[in-house]
Amino acid sequence: MPAEGTVYVIDDDPAMRDSLDFLLDAAGFEARLFESAVSFLAALPALGPGCVVSDVRMPNLDGIELLRRLKETNKPFPIIIMTGHGDVPLAVEAMKLGAIDFIEKPFEDDRLIGTIKAALSSAAQRHKGEAVTADIASRIASLSPRERQVMEGLVAGLSNKLIARNYEISPRTIEVYRANVMTKMQASSVSELVRLAIRGGLLKD
């Protein structure tokens, strides 16, 4: 069965780690187990994308402090917090710090699996969106200073003649720059160019 994604399990209870390892493997996930948040953070630089499932109460460094530490890194893992019945206020605090959900123990297997799938799907979409935005920004960066000026004029709704007048060059030259802009930005129309400018941060929506 192909792996559905990597799930990083953090729990100081060996029985819980073993149980989750079995459950996640059966559901098609690759499970990586950690006995503490400290050991997880130590391994963090080498870890690939995935989802974190962490207990909220652990010795040395608990789930709340783990969230605070992760916010300081450039690895925005979706995090699901496991909590005992009396720890709901802690779980709410965890969600305020960025956890996407909390699950009370004992939990239903299907609910945990469904939450993990949703978390991984959301993370994949966010990663895809970030990659698209970075690609558009690189296209904008590839423009020469004059091409960027022409693009700014186009997305502002200016005609070739007005752009030419602003920069005291001929409309024919503007046409050449405009063609270059459309090619480099991979845009087939001005409306598409506007959408790219917004996505790339050149134009505020």
TrEMBL record:
Keywords: DNA-binding, Phosphoprotein, Transcription, Transcription regulation, Two-component regulatory system. It holds the Pfam family GerE. The modification 4-aspartylphosphate is found at D55. GO terms for biological process: phosphorelay signal transduction system; regulation of DNA-templated transcription. Coiled coil: none annotated. It comes from the Bacteria. Residues 6-120 form the Response regulatory domain. CDD domains: LuxR_C_like, REC_FixJ. One of its GO terms (molecular function) is DNA binding. Residues 136-201 form the HTH luxR-type domain. This is Transcriptional regulatory protein FixJ.
